[in-house]
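User: Continuing from earlier, I have the next pair ready.

Assistant: Great, send them over.

User: Here they are, in order.

Assistant: Folding the first of the pair now:
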Amino acid sequence: LVTSGYVRVDSTLKSNNTFNGELEGSVLAIIEETDLRKDKIAANRIKDWVTAPMLPIHAKHKTPYLVPNTSHFIQASNDVQACPIFAGDTRITMIQVNKLDEEIPKRQIIQLLEKEAQDFLAEILNLELHAPIGRLNIPVIITEDKKTIQESNRTPFEQFLDEKCYYIPGEIVTVR
């Protein structure tokens, strides 16, 4: 259904250079099987790109410039830990996509999607949008999958604090 504005950004995220010209004008930026735990450069780039209102574009052989950030990132991976999510995260919504009971052949699904495209577009164009909320303009959905990953990424110290300490609103507690 998306015929323009779709880009793959795996190589741009992992590259040692700063070229990212393909992000200009992108609406969907897809990351496929890139492990952000193992690549700190990629992890830091995507953090910046997700939240920046203006995106710095550096196309090869061109001077860098800023454009409005229209990108929305989708990361797909078979490894649930490939996208590290920590407590307090406000950038990531996570869902698990289960295996289909019955797989639809590719040609058939494309035909069905093309048939639905006009009605889908009409629905989107008639959708009433609420005023933007927060730095990402929409609230991040907290799913059970996201909570589970956040829990698994806690340090031993964070686990200790959660299990053995408690918070009293308005009180300042000093640990010696």
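And the other member of the pair:
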Amino acid sequence: MAYSSGKDGELFIDNNPASARVKSWSLSASQETIDTTFLGDTDRTFKEGVRSLTGQCEIAYYSDGNGESDAKTLINKIFKPRTSSTEGGVAAEQGETTLKLGFKNYVGTLQYWTLKVLFTSMSVTCSQGEIFTASGSFTVNGAPTEVSV
């Protein structure tokens, strides 16, 4: 047996091949509770409520020989141009994105979550002496479509 590490991580955007220059990704789950305590009870009781998943990812802007970039794909999910040069408040909708977040285990098998997400924020960073990166935060729309961990 062996530990998996960050170098074993992979990220796929909209069922494309694995993103080439992923710096990081994270996925967090939370579970709300519903209070089922009644008058006369001496102790509080709860049951499971709504679950939610959120996450973040960061990709270095690396372009291949054709000028394509996974970061460009990620950036274009939320940064949309105007649909008309006269209407400043009108742009195309983001649309749902499929993300597959995974890592290879000690025998090289991909362990993963496949999720339908909406990006809630996106930032691009360009600093002296650093690689240009795109970072996005997302919320998962419903339950994962696949879980293989």
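Worth noting for the second one:
DSSP finds one helix and seven strands in the chain. The helical segments are 70-78.
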